[in-house]
Design a protein that fits this description.
single chain; 195 residues
Length: 195
């Protein structure tokens, strides 16, 4: 082998090592999102994306955004004076949520269990109220009057990877604050890539 071949092989080796180190610093992924909204008892499904940056060997800071499509449910309208049911209307609800926070996980394994705690927002998209009268109140009045709410998300799950490509499954409790805290089961699943 000549000097040029050895130099080229050494250069390729250095580039491969540098790329392998860079792959463990950042992570991006797509996700399928399931959110069971407790106030409306609706199972919402959608799509999202996340991006993470490793700040320590076992800590990654992540940001994610998910958009869940509209789902129909029966909204109960109550007469304010009598407390009796005034009407039942078919309503659509969609959800957008954005979360940011740390994820704790081992840094150098093919199967990585993790825990996370994120904060952010949840935004409800409701179809217009069917009964805009002041004497009638909606059963989901809180999210009708304040659609954008603060959120806290404790969760956990696992990542499995082969090289820079992997899959992630996560379960958690997306708590939003609207006249008190409301707990909502959230499950995400999707591919990821490290670079």
């Amino acid at each position: 082998m000549g000097k040029a071949t050895l130099t080229l092989m050494a250069l390729l080796f250095c580039l491969t090592v540098a790329q392998a180190r860079a792959q463990s610093r950042m992570e991006a992924g797509l996700l399928l999102d399931y959110l069971n909204v407790s106030q409306t008892q609706t199972p919402n499904f959608g799509l999202g994306a996340r991006f993470g940056y490793r700040v320590h060997s076992h800590v990654m800071l992540e940001g994610e955004l998910a958009y869940d499509y509209g789902v129909n449910f029966n909204e109960l309208y109550v007469n304010v004076a009598s407390g009796k049911v005034a009407a039942i209307g078919r309503t659509s609800i969609g959800v957008t949520d954005g979360l940011f926070g740390p994820m704790l996980e081992p840094a150098h394994r093919h199967f990585r269990p993790f825990v996370t705690l994120k904060g952010g927002f949840i935004d409800f998209r409701l179809s217009p109220s069917l009964l805009p009268y002041s004497s009638v109140a909606s059963s989901v009045f809180g999210i009708r009057s304040s659609t954008l709410n603060a959120a806290l998300y404790p969760g956990g799950g696992a990542e499995a990877s082969l090289g820079p490509v992997g899959l992630r499954l996560e379960f958690g409790d997306l708590v939003y604050f609207n006249n008190g805290g409301h707990n909502n089961l959230r499950i995400t699943f999707g591919p990821l890539i490290r670079f």
